[in-house]
Specification:
alpha+beta; 4-stranded mixed β-sheet; 3-stranded antiparallel β-sheet; 3 helices; globular
């Protein structure tokens, strides 16, 4: 399975999940490593735009294509989440941390807050099969100025 993420060129090949140690996300508390990816390049771009602003968007960034084995995916669907899951981040962080700490699967599929019809894939860098996760391509992306 191929998944996608956006990153500064300096970090294009870093799939360690290090950033999540510093900055918590929708599905993790600070200090817990997880690699956030998206099911397609358009969603990866939208997720990036939702989390950045201003001048950062004017820099060339890298779209990273990552290969992940499909054998170990936990699926979290909308029906698994509270009706107000978008507004209350603590329950989703708890769900993500429980999954990460449990180590039951390499990947967790979750709905995107931006577009519930699309999904993001969380990758657990601490999982025993993480070595099978590979960057297979990078491509420079310059954002269309109409996006801001």
């Amino acid at each position: 399975m191929l998944v996608y993420r956006m990153a500064h060129p300096k970090y294009a090949n870093d799939i360690s999940g290090y950033g999540s140690l510093i900055v918590p996300g929708r599905w993790n508390f600070q200090g817990v490593r997880v690699l956030y990816t998206s099911e397609n390049s358009s969603l990866a771009l939208l997720e990036y735009l939702a989390h950045t602003e201003g001048l950062t968007r004017r820099l060339p960034y890298q779209l990273i294509t990552i290969h992940v084995p499909e054998t170990e995916i936990k699926i979290t669907s909308l029906s698994d989440l509270a009706p107000n899951w978008k507004e209350h981040i603590i329950p989703t962080r708890e769900t993500g941390n429980q999954w990460l700490e449990g180590g039951e699967s390499l990947v967790m599929k979750v709905p995107s807050v931006i577009n519930e019809d699309n999904c993001n894939y969380l990758i657990n860098p601490e999982h025993a099969h993480f070595e099978q996760v590979k960057v297979i391509g990078t491509k420079e992306i310059t954002f269309d100025k109409r996006l801001w």
